[in-house]
Specification:
about 250 residues; alpha+beta; six-stranded antiparallel sheet; 4 helices; globular
Length: about 250
């Protein structure tokens, strides 16, 4: 998926981001940060990488979400000393030896490295890797105005900080963390056959979830755990889950 890179500058840039996104921008001292902007009701709007760049922060987001995200950020800006401009920088990535200046993917070391200086990427099979590591993708498993970040693995993938204080959607996210046991979530399943991304998963005649990315007989599925103990179907495909939650 194409990516758009914004440059965020201004004296208030760090405080501005800290008050909006799910992760702590203090982590930029150690490298790239994966975070999201949520609705006040705690639902996902967009995920992105924040990248330290001297007196600026780069924001790397999937292009289909870029215009709406920039509009929302400018709306929240009010009188803060913050400038948001689109750049022509191109993100590249790979899983082989990291080139000079590359930053590790903050979600999982096995997701490789990312650069913004024109270094060529490699031919990693990213779908297979995401399925193996249970990493959701923007616009596939991560659905704006529908997904809840904790159900899609944000805590496991270092995309949320529960100690940073308030941000948009923080109250709902914290309540899901501390007051309930997750009954739904993203897991790896075994798939015999194939079904279109977004196919409903049925356990008998009961809705049990949604099947997303598939590769090599495995797939990513958002499941209702209480209905996923036995054989399931998604279109013409047979789906099964071993009960493991990553």
């Amino acid at each position: 998926m194409d990516r758009t890179v914004f440059r965020i500058t201004g004296a208030d840039r760090l405080d501005f981001l800290q008050n909006l996104v799910t992760n702590s921008v203090k982590r930029l001292e150690r490298g790239a940060v994966w975070a999201a902007l949520l609705t006040p009701q705690g639902k996902y709007l967009a995920d992105f990488f924040l990248v330290p760049a001297g007196d600026a922060v780069l924001l790397d987001v999937a292009t289909p979400l870029a215009a709406d995200l920039a509009k929302r950020l400018r709306m929240y800006r009010l009188r803060a000393d913050v400038q948001i401009e689109e750049t022509e920088l191109v993100m590249t990535r790979g899983t082989g030896p990291a080139p000079e200046g590359a930053l590790p993917d903050p979600r999982d070391p096995a997701m490789g490295w990312r650069t913004y200086d024109g270094t060529p990427g490699d031919d990693t099979d990213w779908e297979a890797l995401r399925v193996a590591l249970v990493v959701p993708e923007t616009g596939i498993e991560l659905v704006p105005n529908e997904s809840y970040p904790l159900e899609l693995g944000f805590e496991r993938l270092h995309g949320v900080d529960f100690r940073k204080g308030c941000y948009v959607g923080q109250e709902v996210t914290a309540r899901m963390k501390h007051k309930t046991e997750l009954k739904k979530g993203l897991v790896q399943v075994t798939v015999e056959g194939a079904a279109p991304v977004g196919s409903e998963i049925l356990a008998g005649d009961k809705p049990a979830g949604v099947l997303y990315t598939q590769s090599g007989g495995k797939g990513l599925a958002w499941l209702r755990f209480d209905r996923a103990a036995g054989p399931m179907t998604a279109g013409d495909a047979a789906v099964s889950w071993d009960g493991h939650r990553p």
